[in-house]
Amino acid sequence: MKKKADLGKYLQTITDILQSTEDMGGDLNPYFDLANGMVTESKQLTADQFAQIQESFSQGITVYHQNLDKLEKAAAPVMIIGPHKQLVKAYRDFVVGCEQMHASIDYSGQTINGQAFKDSEKAQSDAMDHVNAHVSRIMQKVG
């Protein structure tokens, strides 16, 4: 017989993932600002700045993939399986948006595809709005 999902453990997992995502976003923000400055204000970046952006974005994507893996493996209680699956999809979309932003930057050529960068920023923002909406739905159902 399958063990019943532990609501407390599930909610703690969600909280940990959201906190990790928020912390990483805060860590990445200065590097996003550098890249965005090049896109929106035609600021020039040094090779060292490109290297810092590349390393930071790569680390962020690694953390986001780890979070996605934890989210996919989280045992959701039966009453919230639907919203949980939607949450996983929204978080996956967020990770894809992050990967697209990373891919919009040609680190060796030291250029940024501005349209792809802005499109990926919007994709990340939209996905995170969905993540937050699904977390709210989950909290309403268990509250």
List keywords for this structure.
143 residues, mainly alpha, two-stranded antiparallel sheet, 4 helices
What does this structure look like?
This protein is an all-alpha fold and 143 residues long. Helices cover 80% and strands 3% of the residues. The chain has 4 helices and 2 strands. It has a two-stranded antiparallel ribbon. Helix 3 runs antiparallel to helix 4. The longest helix is centred in the N-terminal third of the chain and has 35 residues. The model has no long low-confidence stretch (mean pLDDT 96).
Could you give a short description of this structure?
With 143 residues, the protein is mostly helical. It has helices at residues 7-41, 47-73, 81-103, 114-142, and strands at 105-106, 111-112. α1 runs antiparallel to α4.
Write the layout of secondary structure elements.
Elements: H1 7-41, H2 47-73, H3 81-103, E1 105-106, E2 111-112, H4 114-142
Antiparallel strand pairs: 1-2
Helix pairs in contact: 1-2, 1-4, 2-3, 3-4
Compute the average pLDDT. Answer: 96
In terms of structural class, how would the helical and strand content be classed?
mainly alpha
Number of helices: 4
| Cα distance spanning the termini | 27 Å
Shape verdict: elongated
The strand order across the widest sheet is 1-2
C-alpha-based Rg, rounded: 17 Å
Biggest sheet overview: 2 strands, antiparallel
Indicate the proportion of strand residues: under 5%
Unreliable residue runs: none
Q: Give, in order, the helices and strands.
A: HHHEEH
Helix fraction bin = over 70%
Number of strands: 2
